[in-house]
Amino acid sequence: MAGTLAACGSSDGGQGSGDSKTVTLVSHDSWAASKDVIAAFEKQSGYKVDVLKDGDAGQAVNKAILTKDNPQGDVFFGVDNTLLSRALDNGLFQPYEAKGSDRIKAEYRVDQEQHRVTPVDTGDICVNYDKKYFADHKLEPPRSFDDLVKPQYRNLLVTENASASSPGLGFLLGTAAKYGDAGWEGYWKKLKANGVKVVDGWEQAYNEEFSGSAGGKKAKGDRPLVVSYASSPPAEVVFADPKPSTAPTGVAEGTCFRQVEYAGLLSNAKNTKGGKAFLDFLISERFQQDMPLNMFVYPVREGAQVPPEFVQYGPQAKDPETMDPAKIADHRDQWVKSWTSLVLK
Fold first, then answer.
1. What is 27-46 written as a DSSP string?
2. From residue 117, how far is each of 39, 73, 78, 317 by CA, in Å?
3. From CA 82, how far away is CA 145, in angstroms rounded?
4. Going by C-beta distance under 8 Å and a sequence separation of 6 or more, which residues neighbour residue 30?
5. Which helix (H) or strand (E) holds 49?
6. What was the pLDDT predicted at 15?
């Protein structure tokens, strides 16, 4: 998901997952954690944490599958519900029921018979809008999927490539959930005719093309609508200096798709004991409460406190689109293929 801090795990090049004192985490580029929280795990467990970032979530999952016989690390974090079946069907993970799994909210638990993955966080993929743009143009921001195809929003939206990007795929699945098997392609034809722009990944869409983000302003981005997360507005407040009294961006709540991210012990991991300890740590109360302001996602552990910035600027969508993982598994690849032909060609 959309984190903006660098990884806080240690990296020493000479050691890898073969060193029993080192546990290697493989993740997407948005992994982030507070140094003191990682240090506490290292002190308590005796393992040194090495973090290997491997691109966008989609890229990271695909690379992990390709290297599963000789994995780059011990634990993989960042496979979400849009790509979970691909990882499980390819034997990416070995079973392990993390300590504290009984504290994970029931709606986020999956694979309960084999425990190949552990839910770690959740968030909503939603269209964000640049408040200043819409105020300056005396235009109401869009509120729903239906609004995005209206003439007044022509050439305003940028989204990510659904074949390579996790939020891009989530947005596609949101439209499939909303309009059904028979209607989503017709919707995307209208969206394309209305000037939607597609870029490779979240970083480019949000920090270069989107006019409402701090990065987009510097890059002179000219798209006031972007597919991002419901938790992106609080990030704009937290990292601003000076901090604004209100978030400069808002969320179109009728465009949200619920995402859940998981972690798992990689098949053929060299340090399985360390990997198991790290999975336990990911759902511990300390990590779960540290996570929101580092990766801008919501905890899945019951009772984990959410920071006030989330409550004020990035509340979870009240009625997001969702989809059964089995349906995603059955249709995802064909939907992406059809989407690619329809939107990119």
1. E-TT----HHHHHHHHHHH-
2. 24, 16, 11, 25
3. 19
4. 1, 2, 3, 57, 78, 295
5. strand 48-53
6. 37
The confidence score (pLDDT) of residue 224 equals 98
40 pLDDT tier (thresholds 50, 70, 90): very high
What is the spatial distance between Cα 320 and Cα 251, in angstroms, rounded to a whole number?
Answer: 12
Within the chain, what is the greatest distance between any pair of CA atoms?
Answer: 61
Strands 197-199 and 118-130, by their bridges, are: unpaired
Mean pLDDT score, 335-343? 97
DSSP label of 257 = E
Please spell the DSSP secondary structure of 108-161, one letter per residue. Answer: G---TTT---EEEEEEEEEEEEEHHHHHHTT-PPP-BHHHHTSGGGTT-EEEE-
Let me know: does 266 contact 73? Beta carbons within 8 Å.
Answer: yes
Write out pLDDT tens, residues 84-134.
999 999 999 999 999 999 999 999 999 999 999 999 999 999 999 999 999
Q: What is the CA radius of gyration of the chain?
A: 20
User: Where are the extended beta strands (E) located within 208-341?
Assistant: 225-229, 249-266, 298-299
Which pair of tokens denotes residue 319?
A: 């009625």
Question: Secondary structure of 266-291 in the HEC alphabet?
Answer: ECCCCCHHHHHHHHHHHCCHHHHHHC
Query: How are beta strands 157-160 and 93-94 bridged, if at all?
Result: unpaired
Rounded to two decimals, the pTM is 0.85
Angle between helical axes of 272-282 and 35-45 (0-180°, round to 10) = 130
Spatial CB neighbours of 34, under 8 Å, sequence gap ≥ 6: 8, 290, 294
Q: Please answer whether residues 91 and 114 qualify as being in contact, where contact means their C-beta atoms are separated by less than 8 angstroms.
A: no
Q: Which residue has the higher pLDDT, 320 or 324?
A: 320
Q: Which secondary structure element, helix H or strand E, spans residue 94, and what is its range?
A: strand 93-94
In contact, 83 and 166? CB cutoff 8 Å: yes
